[in-house]
Amino acid sequence: MVLEKYTKDEAKSIRIGLITMLAIIVAVFITISHNTSIKGAEDGSTYTIYANFGRTDGLNEGDAVRMSGVSIGRVVKSSLDENFNSKLSLEINSKYKIPDDSSASIISFGLIGGKYVEIEVGGSEEYILPQGYIEYTQDAMVLEELLDRIISMGKNKQNKDSQQIKGDDYE
């Protein structure tokens, strides 16, 4: 065997490295395979609706549109509107009707995964018509901003705790 020319520790490190590399490759493959989109209904019938977002970081044309975890369409176009917001054109399978009080969010498959548009179903009995808009949207969460918020919350808590301890020393 090739590993016989190495010491036990070196061979163990090589095995761990290979297993880790394999695990990363599998994780990337799973992430990519989850980023699915539909091409349209079985008969090819779809309709287009629009949604405006302040930011769509990481969302690409061809990414899935999902409702209740089921793929119902795909993002077909992304452009800027007159207010410099991102306007998404969403191609929806004709067999799905979306209530007009529904909301759309940009969701990530995971830390390193792709993104998709998730539609939260509203309770209205009226539906969004073709060429209509989803009025309620939530922008994509940027991982760096989220980490910054968590770190600043931790620092604030640490400062409050240290001030409380100092205050207790003077009593």
Could you characterize the architecture of this molecule?
With 171 residues, this protein is α/β, with parallel strands linked by helices. It is 32% helix and 28% strand. The chain contains 2 helices and 8 strands. It has helices at residues 8-34, 143-169; strands at residues 46-53, 64-67, 70-80, 86-93, 103-108, 115-120, 133-134, 136-138. An 8-stranded mixed sheet has the order 7-1-4-3-2-6-5-8, with no helix packed on it. The protein is flat and about 70 Å long. The chain starts with 7 loop residues before the first helix and ends with a helix. Residues 35-41 have low confidence and may be disordered.
Give me the number of helical elements. Answer: 2
Give the proportion of residues in helices: 25-40%
As a whole number of angstroms, the C-alpha radius of gyration is 24 Å
In total, the number of strands is 8
